[in-house]
Specification:
This protein is α/β, with parallel strands linked by helices. It folds into two domains: about 5-370, ANL, N-terminal domain (Rossmann fold), CATH 3.40.50; about 450-555, GMP Synthetase, Chain A, domain 3, CATH 3.30.300.30. Strands 2-1-11-10-12-13-14-15-16 form a nine-stranded mixed sheet. The chain has a five-stranded parallel sheet with strand order 4-3-5-6-7, sandwiched between helices. The chain is globular. Bound molecules: 5'-O-[(S)-ethoxy(hydroxy)phosphoryl]adenosine. 5'-O-[(S)-ethoxy(hydroxy)phosphoryl]adenosine binds near residues 347, 348, 432 and 433.
Length: about 575
């Protein structure tokens, strides 16, 4: 695929029809991401090329070629089909970053079903909310996690299959089964379901301002945007060794941890372990990573351990580093230059956009602290906060808005047309982020326009946390906000009023924290709980989260005339 030229020329000459051509697609043809990332790469003669270098938590490694990827995803596809799972059925994947996650993701797509990845650290309640809403028919999981599903399965009538993929000795209950890839008969030929560019592919749940998480539904045609942006914004080329540190439970881990790079036949390193500066540098060094896609929280943690540690490793192969998920501080960009000899290139996008929409590009001047410029084919503007007119004036903060029509845009929020529609105003898709734009079209992120909490690049919805908090036996009222944090940008802080008969204590605080960690996830767990007699409310009885947040951030409180006296 052709490289990125000068920004101005590329932006001017590009349209999404060109992307279809670059990806080698002709209108009306079958388009299937599963096939495209495996069979097609093999047909191009790259079957024996390494697709995945996998390293587990304790250092064990496995390698798979594109042909392995093809056969293993076929085998998953055939198995799921044999269970009667068909096109458009929602199939969850709930496991650590195991090779099976990747094979099954592609296998689900090959039968035309919808892949619904769930972050492996989710607790029962977080799982339940997402599986109930999607009426998921099956879930692929492991011995580490299947009990969480077992505990909620009675409340999930649509769920027919709970499939454990790494242990055939688990004592199975009703609806549970095991499928062990290495024992299964390998399927060399599989008739891929004839999906087309508008067929649904991936369903990712994301947190909104109010209400439950929403399922952003994507289509197979998203690959046009994911492939071209992996080539241009991540600068991926055929010989690269690429490492995306994101988990496929979040959109970065699927769009750029599976689809984008494999659609280009690029070798990926997948590390199924946690963060550790030394460990991460070792991964970069050992596998000769050339392109690295990570997040500001990780970069800030690396910065804490200093430049010296970087220099102790041979990272001479590394040639391009990108970031996503939160604002990338200018210091991080400068530190990248100092420690690695190159800046981190910031990229901006969302679960809803499916692919990078604003970015820095190779060869383009990086202005530290800016997210970069609109991706070719994307019309991105800043709208006035109130009138929603385009402002696009330097230093004027407004809403980032995008003209709909790029291939990886979500097609709906699952079961939630009303909220989906509310995202569009005057023909613009409103991202919910605030930014200004400079005369050269660089976007300067300011913050979110809603109450969603961004902790370490992961969005958590205050409503979900508050709903879980009030299920704790001691909690009468609760509010959750993001509180500034030097490493994670924000962490969750909860305000809690207790029921009569309960006393504030360290034990109780811990019990509430753990309750949320178990029910939702470690990310959603409040790092701090402030106990109050009662929470500030409007006259109509709504808790004023905005007021609590403003106090926490030392901001103007604004109009409090509707506050209860
Ligand atoms: C935030 C992740 C500042 C933003 C791909 C957005 C960013 C939300 C950046 C989407 C960036 C993402 N600078 N903020 N470069 N990239 N964000 O849906 O608030 O998990 O709306 O998708 O993360 O998060 P999501």
């Amino acid at each position: 695929m052709q490289g990125f030229g000068s920004y101005e020329e590329t932006y001017r000459d590009f349209d999404w029809q060109k992307a279809r051509e670059m990806v080698g697609y002709r209108e009306g043809e079958v388009l299937n991401i599963g096939w495209y990332c495996t069979d097609r790469i093999c047909e191009m003669g790259l079957g024996e090329k390494t697709a995945m270098i996998w390293e587990g938590f304790s250092g064990e490694t496995e390698k798979y070629t594109f042909n392995d990827l093809r056969i293993n995803s076929n085998t998953y596809a055939a198995y799921l089909k044999s269970l009667g799972i068909k096109e458009r059925d929602r199939v969850c994947i709930f496991m650590d970053k195991l090779p099976d996650l990747y094979f099954s993701f592609l296998g689900i797509l090959k039968i035309g079903a919808i892949a619904q990845p769930l972050f492996s650290a989710f607790g029962e309640e977080a799982l339940f909310t997402r599986m109930e809403d999607a009426e998921s028919i099956a879930i692929l999981t492991t011995k580490k996690y299947y009990r969480k599903v077992r505990r909620i399965k009675d409340q999930l009538p649509a769920l027919k299959h709970i499939i454990v993929v790494d242990d055939e000795n688990v004592k199975l209950e009703e609806r549970e089964k095991t499928f062990i890839l290495k024992n299964a008969e390998k399927v060399d030929e599989f008739d891929v379901f004839p999906t087309h560019s508008e067929s649904p592919s991936v369903l990712h749940y994301t947190s909104g301002t109010t209400g439950k998480p929403k399922g952003a539904l994507h289509v197979h045609g998203s690959i046009f945007a994911q492939s071209v942006s992996a080539r241009w914004a991540l600068d991926l080329r055929e010989d690269d060794i690429y490492w995306c540190t994101a988990d496929p439970g979040w959109v970065t881990g699927t769009s750029y941890g599976i689809i984008g790079p494999w659609s280009l036949g690029v070798t990926q390193v997948i590390y199924n372990g946690g963060f550790g500066s030394e460990k991460w540098y070792k991964i970069l060094e050992k596998y000769g990573v050339t392109v690295w896609y990570t997040a500001p929280t990780a970069i800030r943690l690396l910065m804490k351990d200093g430049t010296g540690l970087v220099k102790q490793h041979d990272l001479s192969k590394l040639r391009y580093m990108c970031s996503v998920g939160e604002p990338l501080n200018p210091e991080a960009v400068h530190w990248g230059r100092e420690a690695f000899g190159m800046p981190f290139y910031d990229t901006y996008w969302q679960t809803e956009t499916g692919a990078i929409v604003i970015s820095n590009f190779p060869g383009m001047e990086v202005k530290a602290g800016s997210m970069g410029r609109a991706f070719p084919g994307i019309e991105a503007v800043v709208l006035d906060l109130n009138s929603h007119e385009v402002i696009n004036e330097p230093n004027k903060v407004g809403l980032i808005a995008l003209k709909p029509g790029w291939p990886s845009m979500m097609r709906e929020y699952w079961n939630n047309e009303e909220v989906y529609k509310s995202k569009f105003i005057n023909g613009w898709y409103i991202t919910g982020d605030r930014s200004s734009i400079d005369p050269e079209g660089y976007f300067w992120f300011v913050g979110r326009d809603d109450d969603v909490i961004n902790t370490g690049g992961h969005l958590v919805g205050p409503f979900e946390i508050e709903s879980a908090l009030i299920e704790h036996e001691a909690v009468a009222e609760a509010a959750a906000i993001g509180k500034p944090d030097p490493v994670n940008m924000e962490v969750v802080k909860a305000f809690v009023a207790l029921k009569p008969g309960y006393e504030v204590s360290d034990d109780l605080e811990l019990s509430i924290m753990n309750f949320i960690r178990k029910r939702l996830s470690p990310l959603a767990m409040p790092q701090e709980i402030e106990f109050m007699e009662k929470l500030p409310k409007t006259r109509s009885g709504k808790i004023m989260r905005r007021l609590l947040r403003a106090q926490e951030w030392g901001e103007e409180i604004g109009d409090t005339s509707t506050l209860e006296d």
